[in-house]
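User: Here's a structure from my thesis project, written as structure tokens. My advisor, Dr. K., wants to see whether a designed sequence matches the one we expressed. Can you design one independently, without my sequence as a hint?
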């Protein structure tokens, strides 16, 4: 199976060595160099199922994968040529090496690469990165275009502090494993992150004072926090943090709704778009830009409508008004759930599109 990953690298290098962007299945420029090991295994199992492999053979094959998993993963040497060839193009997408058998050697090369290329996202979860890798990333971030850094389950030791000092350059971060001192240091940093993630170090659990300090430090910009914690003592801490993020998300949606309403109502607004004056707009915008603008505004308006309906006391009446049909109580209860809300959103969108 590893041969298929190596074959994927070889195909990528053919384009890179000619100074060409890597094409995706549609022929467009690739926006994500994805070597996520979990996704790869899932794809392989799906292929086997589609080929109708016998059940007993499939169980044996899966057992072999668990035994030889390390041999299936890419290592530093496997990726060395690919990263070297990447320097020949202006790649500005995402690089994902989740669960590959890579160490600080690859991270040092990536640290150089993000300073040369406008790479926007780096995902290195469940890898063997240590103190040196974190140190090099921390030095490189100020000179890069990186906005997203995910290091789930990585233990960088004290070099995590170096990364924390660069938060004002980033938008999304998962720091990996944090002890009590590291979480306290994180609480002292000013940032405008929209997403943050970390896991507890079982050798240095978080105390009450540190958790309280972190809760007080949550910025208005923070919309989500990703925890991976098994300690039952942290349930209250996690709950309060998630409530604060939910309040931030609600405020963000209200702000966005007001901004879009101001565009719609103010003809002098630089982003105002008069859909009725199509003759003038035809000269100002391409068809692609025109449709993109219209549907983006429509979707934002619909999402705002959906969020509003979720808070509506008379929700059943609101759903009936949108669907124009009386639904059984069991279905109505399903619609009131988060997933069911998509039905309301879809019907609202269809109604608006028809108009």
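Assistant: Designed independently from the structure alone:
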């Amino acid at each position: 199976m590893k041969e298929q990953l190596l074959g994927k690298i070889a195909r990528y290098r053919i384009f890179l060595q000619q100074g060409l962007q890597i094409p995706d299945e549609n022929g467009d420029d690739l926006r994500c160099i994805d070597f996520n090991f979990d996704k790869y295994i899932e794809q392989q199992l799906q292929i086997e199922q589609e080929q109708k492999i016998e059940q007993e053979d499939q169980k044996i094959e899966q057992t072999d994968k668990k035994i030889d998993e390390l041999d299936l993963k890419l290592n530093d040497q496997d990726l060395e040529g690919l990263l070297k060839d990447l320097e020949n193009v202006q790649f500005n997408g995402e690089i994902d090496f989740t669960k590959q058998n890579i160490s600080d050697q690859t991270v040092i090369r990536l640290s150089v690469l993000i300073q040369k290329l406008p790479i926007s996202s780096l995902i290195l979860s469940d890898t063997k990165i240590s103190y040196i890798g974190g140190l090099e990333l921390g030095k490189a971030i100020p000179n890069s275009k990186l906005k997203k850094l995910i290091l789930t389950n990585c233990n960088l030791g004290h070099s995590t502090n170096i990364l924390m000092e660069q938060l004002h350059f980033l938008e999304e971060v998962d720091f990996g494993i944090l002890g009590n001192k590291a979480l306290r240091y994180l609480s002292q940093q000013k940032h405008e992150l929209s997403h943050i993630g970390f896991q507890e170090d079982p050798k240095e659990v978080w105390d009450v004072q540190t958790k309280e300090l972190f809760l007080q430090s949550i910025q208005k910009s923070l919309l989500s926090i990703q925890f991976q914690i098994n300690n039952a003592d942290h349930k209250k801490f996690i709950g309060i943090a998630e409530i604060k993020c939910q309040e931030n998300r609600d405020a963000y949606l209200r702000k966005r709704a007001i901004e879009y309403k101001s565009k719609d109502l103010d003809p002098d607004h630089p982003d105002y778009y008069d859909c009725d004056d199509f003759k003038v707009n035809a000269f100002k915008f391409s068809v692609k830009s025109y449709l993109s603008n219209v549907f983006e505004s429509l979707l934002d308006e619909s999402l705002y409508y959906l969020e509003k309906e979720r808070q509506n006391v008379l929700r059943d009446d609101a759903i009936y008004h949108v669907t124009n049909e009386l639904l059984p109580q069991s279905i109505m209860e399903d619609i009131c759930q988060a997933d069911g809300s998509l039905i309301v959103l879809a019907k609202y969108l269809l109604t608006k599109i028809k108009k």
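When you compare it with your expressed construct, this may help: The beta strands are 32-34, 94-96, 121-123, 148-150, 172-178, 195-200, 224-228.
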